[in-house]
């Protein structure tokens, strides 16, 4: 059978091919056994060792499957699509058969190691044929009238499953052929064939298996990229050829660096083809942001190694041995992987080897990209015969690493080259593509409009060729576009030329494609569309958008053609303005939900025992050659299922299906945690906030000189604070693609940071002569605009970090804010000279006269989403709207704020304006009538400095001079995140667990509740048992027990993990139990009561030890153990302190007197030599433990009674808490107050404690909050709102309870 004879089914509208008769004759001659499988598929052992045998067997089976499909003749699109794919796969294999026929049987021989994947494919086809043949048989069976309707319809889901399986298995089969082919059919001169074949024949089965285990990145280069058109790119190619021939090791790397869409990948393809023909190509790797796998380095080294085996078979034994000796090499660091698999194999290689790496900038992780570049640079230095061709966009990090060892070249095109001619390479391409379609003058104008960008020229030509009937008007549209090489408007035109009736379906399809973690096959995509309720097939999308979307013939997956289109779609994920329904909107948030649901459906239907089809559970992973290709991931989901929140849909539904999974009895959350109301971490005013384009993160900049990244869903900090600026960070912005952050500072610099690594990219941008007050990225991410107190606006190249043109001058005072228009053509700036100015972004020239109207300094400016309006804010306490085109004010000023208005922004759909003011409020406005919507939003305690919307418009964030960030629901106009609620009455005490992960609270509502210290969510049900209000709680030193004291005069012990009471209540007191404490070894509990007694209890037995401690003449309010556990101290309403011997229960000396009011707080110094006490008399006193005498003078400063105090771990300081709402630090050596009072609580501060390392202090207040403070700076570093129905009245916290509180550098906490 020749390669031009392709089987066709003739069903579902598929046309018969000219060779249908020959194919039909072949079909009629097939002989079937009882199983329905052609008998001649089964080859003899000698035939099985020939490469042609499994190929022929596979194609005969495909022919039989196609025949069965044709006989079913359901005329359904699912069967038609399946047949179409099978025909393509038949053609692929037939082409391979024809190419292999010219080689001898010895060259075609395969051993057991290589035979296995071929055998697996053939067995799969046999099984598939049996299934389809059975369906055909059932349809032929006689039926009665009542069963006919049911029999005639075959479930489309079953057909989709057939398609998914065949796509997957065929891809693995073709990959195996690709690995095998070069071993015998390498396209070098015949004289090399014997050597190469001999090299492969020397491989043992174990070595071959080791190579097959190395995972390959699934990316078909030839499906995406083409070689250069003949006669184009000759200059740069000649430069590359000269470099490749140069044996000098001084510049072993050639870096082809140019803008996106310039044609770098096409040049790389031409180089690959030339070097492959010469026998010098070692490997190639094409990065692509269109897939997760293609944009990471996870499979980079193993793919390079596999390519080396493919192109230079003599290296196969070396690489196989390296892989065999290092079975866990893929878990090693990148540099070690490359050294093991690649560098070590090339060390003694005497021939030149060239590796091509395209689009290295599309490796999304900046940290991975830097590690890869460092690894490649080291390898190039170590291997004298290795040369590397790298292509990328301009990037300072890449340049910094490659500059010493590379030749840097560009394609001499694009907007940065003003001397290019219209008859350049793109003109040649356009002329060849459109000759006969457009006249010469139109082609010339298109060439000029392309500005040398090949991607622009390519897509423009495709649009015209696909719409030849309307080619003239489309050409006019292209020529009329703003600017040259405008890729944004070009992609807009792609969609405008499609059928409007298809737009809704198209948007839904593109959203699903964009949201996918990895590209899917057409069958999977159709299944996803069907499940998501999207009407239409992926084939229709590819047909209508073939200029930007395609199907890879080798892998069958659907992919985007170019990274610029992915970036374009990313920018279209923001909801368009309400008056711009023509703008494409990609609802990627909804798409993520649909894909997640579809994945869960797949898990539900396909999870089963031994899903990897392992022949034996005794095999080790490295003994299964294709273990990486087998479906093992679902096991992970089953394993994680028991740990999901108990009320989540995943947990509830999953447990119904998988009843035999393990059960977690304690410690689970009920729901997934949302963000807290307030995000803490910055130590000073938050001056800027910006969301990433996908809305998953936002970034903040602060006067504390740091930049912080936050998870938008949880409110948790992402990584460590980014440091580098030496003064306040005043402005912050995410790049449109989410990979970079730009920051402006009072240190007069702009810095660009890599989001993934948090590292600075290149050098700081310098030029401003005063603080940088504002900055913004252009919509395409290529430029940055900045405004400064030096009265100027500047433009910068975002990739090169270089200024663009001269500063924009015109303002006569500080520039306070800058913004790009949505189309990137204009820049707006505001100033303290009371004006707003518009500038042309391309030329830097003023666009009209200044906008005047504000009566005081203008603080901010922002464009509406459609670019037609500006909103500005001012110290005149107003907000104003302006018409961009006319420069005239629209309507009346927005009035309502009671102080200067610092910031205002439009919602993404343009229907609302949100403003923030020095009056500490946020207000929502309707731009159509200048009226306020609802009441002012309150929550911040100081001036609102910045506001930013999430891309989908559902949330906005505010940053304040109070150092906090708050998240707000934009639809409901209320805070995001619900404070914990539960107690129905006053909260009397709270305590931290020793690990710091739990908080216990007790209340007059007779309950005890446990809370997650990180999220603030309640853990489990309330602990019930007391018959009166609970006034005191304490954790045991190991955190396993909780003791509580109550108005019911009882003490109860609780198992924290089991969430239940232990033993019977400890009874003995005759009045309320006001205080409880564990001994340092956890064996004893000490209690103090309103019956004027102290009692000791045995934790293990629950029995009282000895007699009550008698002596006080008033209620006991506070108790504490000495550090060695031998003594206790108590404080009472009788205005005295008493020391007691634990063993005897006897007082140690007379009462300690000096206070003139109830003693509410007591504690021992860490060395046990001193006691500190706090009283209603507003004083703090220190006492000598041995003598009972006061030490020095009393500590005075609080303006109301002292509720609580604690020694620092080093014993040098005391922190106190008071009814006057403050915390104060005291130096015990000189009895002086240290620094200013800590302000922030809005009501009495009832309790305070040091962390064990002395870095943090925790406080609890009647304002219902718990706050963490940094001791060194005195600044608040965390707040958790527990929002009880009553204030927090008291809190018992010892240093032990803070044993593992997160310190100021812990990335798990919300604070500093």
From TrEMBL:
Keywords: Repeat, WD repeat. Residues 232-393 form the Nephrocystin 3-like N-terminal domain. Residues 1-25, 1281-1312 are annotated as: Disordered. Residues 1281-1294 have a biased composition (Basic and acidic residues). The keyword Magnesium does not apply. WD repeats lie at residues 679-720, 722-763, 765-797, 808-849, 851-892, 894-935, 937-978, 980-1021, 1023-1064, 1066-1107, 1109-1150, 1152-1193, 1195-1236, 1238-1279. PANTHER family: TRANSCRIPTION INITIATION FACTOR TFIID, TRANSCRIPTION INITIATION FACTOR TFIID SUBUNIT 5. This is Nephrocystin 3-like N-terminal domain-containing protein.
